[in-house]
């Protein structure tokens, strides 16, 4: 017998009540049992769960006199090198993302011959298996390219002769292969989606071995295969800035957690992609763009700070935009006064907005950055200053480069897979223990009740799970 649709809705809504009721934990228990909610201690600092040499994320300095932590401008180091210095050092050179990937994976900056060899290896691995585009990328196309990436990465497992071998040589081969292939999958997935769902011409352009990752993304993406030097340079800088961020960020921690179980590389990368997609992590770059579209529609005078403040307060009060109460692109788990990546991207946003005559929008971003910080501090219980993060200006920069919104978070992933790979190898090289934190049980043990003696549960909440 087929259930009526209305009936199904009713039945589901009752189950929704049950599951919400059953899953609810009394928040005061976190304090009672000293449980670190979100793995953060009472000062908001992340609980120490691992050691890494890959990158260092600094949001506080220690006052030498008092020994106290003092909020500071953020600094990010890859294998000991300040990212700002790396970007500056590469100014005369054309592209740096490949070099940074080498640095993250192998621990030192490559010499010219080493870099040339590495680029050659990447260009060999860039090739997708025969018919992969036709049989996998073009099938069951998804509106969200992060899901497409996950699906395709998981399917590449089936094309690998040694998918479950987690020896370091094999994992490195798989990592390099995925790093090289990811841009193709993202861009082809985007074209396939546009073709099937938006009736656009299908463009599948091969990558060119002599081009950098940034150039290849642009030439495969643009209908005419053309791009400017500035576009490629800015995209390359964005790729460098997103390449790693310590072991504790949600997607890299996911890499550590799943790698510690001994799972295969494809599953580990798919898991990290799932994490990065979330709007409180890498997916925030897309949310920032949507939020600005919403602000631009609802705030009549962008220069009126009071009107902006009122609207941002509405967002925080869950009365506007997506109802989550979050101002996307603001706040960070570690950084306090500034996120160094945001500082660099903001410079590019300023430069590009002048070139593209979008200064008014840039001014709006700057105002929101300043006013949102004040509003969040007023409305939330903050343990540290709040600043704009890497996702705040990145979407605006991508938009000015003509990149489609669908690819904002995939670009983050195309870059971050370098960091995930370095962390996965670090986890495996050190033969870490399986990551398995403890959970305190706060339910109640109960005697079994035979089915004929059961009565439907009431859902007004008591924390007893009866
Ligand atoms: C690449 C990246 O992942 S960068 C981050 C991208 N994410 C975003 O931009 C989403 C918006 N920002 C946020 O949600 C948060 O700032 C995060 C997830 C980045 C960091 O979260 P936390 O480490 O928990 O931040 P923190 O401890 O400073 O937050 C203190 C309080 O302020 C709130 N808060 C922090 N940032 C924001 C924000 N942008 N909008 C509204 N409230 C915020 C937190 O929810 C928390 O409130 P609570 O105590 O009621 O739960
Ligand atoms: O460190 C974090 O929590 C989030 C972040 O900025 C990143 O992963 O780039």
From TrEMBL:
Catalytic activity from the UniProt record: oxaloacetate + acetyl-CoA + H2O = citrate + CoA + H(+)
Transferase keyword on record: yes
Protein name listed in UniProt: Citrate synthase
InterPro entries, per database record: Citrate_synth-like_lrg_a-sub (IPR016142), Citrate_synth-like_sm_a-sub (IPR016143), Citrate_synthase (IPR002020), Citrate_synthase_bac-typ (IPR024176), Citrate_synthase_sf (IPR036969)
Pfam families for this protein: Citrate_synt
SUPFAM superfamilies cross-referenced by the UniProt entry: Citrate synthase
Keywords: Transferase
PANTHER family: CITRATE SYNTHASE (PTHR11739), CITRATE SYNTHASE, PEROXISOMAL (PTHR11739:SF4)
Ribonucleoprotein recorded as keyword: no
Family: Belongs to the citrate synthase family.
Pathway annotation: Carbohydrate metabolism; tricarboxylic acid cycle
């Amino acid at each position: 017998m087929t259930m009526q649709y209305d009936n199904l809705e009713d039945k589901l809504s009752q189950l929704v009540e049950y599951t919400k009721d059953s899953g609810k934990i009394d928040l005061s228990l976190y304090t009672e049992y000293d449980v670190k909610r979100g793995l953060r201690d009472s000062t908001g600092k992340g609980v120490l769960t691992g050691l890494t040499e890959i990158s260092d994320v600094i949001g506080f300095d220690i006052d030498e006199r008092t020994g106290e932590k003092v909020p500071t401008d953020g600094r990010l180091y890859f294998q000991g090198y300040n990212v700002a210095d790396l970007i500056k050092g590469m100014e005369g050179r054309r592209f740096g993302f490949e070099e940074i990937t080498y640095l993250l994976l192998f621990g030192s900056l490559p010499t010219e011959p080493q870099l040339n060899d590495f680029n050659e290896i990447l260009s060999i691995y860039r090739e997708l298996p025969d018919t992969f585009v036709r049989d996998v990328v073009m099938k069951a196309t998804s509106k969200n390219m992060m899901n497409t990436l996950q699906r395709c990465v998981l399917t590449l497992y089936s094309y690998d002769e040694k998918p479950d071998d987690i020896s370091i040589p094999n994992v490195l081969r798989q990592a390099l292969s995925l790093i090289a292939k990811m841009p193709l999958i993202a861009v082809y997935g985007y074209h396939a989606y546009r073709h099937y769902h938006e009736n656009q011409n299908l463009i599948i352009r091969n990558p060119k071995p002599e081009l950098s990752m940034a150039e290849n993304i642009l030439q495969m993406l643009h209908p005419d295969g053309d791009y400017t030097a500035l576009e490629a340079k800015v995209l390359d800088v964005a790729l460098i800035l997103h390449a790693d961020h310590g072991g504790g960020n949600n997607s890299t921690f996911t890499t550590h957690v799943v790698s510690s179980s001994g799972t295969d590389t494809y599953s580990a990368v798919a898991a990290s992609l799932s994490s990065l997609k979330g709007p409180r992590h890498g997916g925030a770059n897309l949310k920032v763009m949507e939020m600005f579209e919403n602000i631009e529609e609802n705030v009549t005078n962008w220069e009126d700070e009071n009107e902006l403040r009122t609207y941002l307060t509405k967002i925080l009060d869950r009365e506007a935009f997506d109802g989550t109460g979050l101002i996307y692109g603001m706040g960070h788990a570690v950084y306090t006064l500034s996120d160094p990546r945001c500082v660099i991207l903001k410079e590019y946003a300023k430069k590009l907005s002048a070139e593209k005559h979008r200064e008014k929008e840039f001014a709006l971003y700057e105002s929101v950055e300043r006013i949102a910080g004040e509003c969040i501090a007023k409305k939330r219980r903050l343990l540290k200053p709040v600043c704009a993060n890497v996702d705040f200006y990145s979407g605006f920069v991508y938009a000015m480069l003509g990149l489609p919104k669908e690819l904002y978070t995939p670009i983050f992933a195309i870059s971050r897979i370098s960091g995930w790979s370095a962390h996965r190898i670090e986890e495996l090289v050190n033969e870490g223990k399986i990551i398995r934190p403890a959970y305190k049980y706060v339910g109640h043990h109960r005697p079994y009740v035979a089915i004929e003696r059961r009565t439907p549960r009431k859902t007004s909440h008591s924390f007893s799970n009866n």
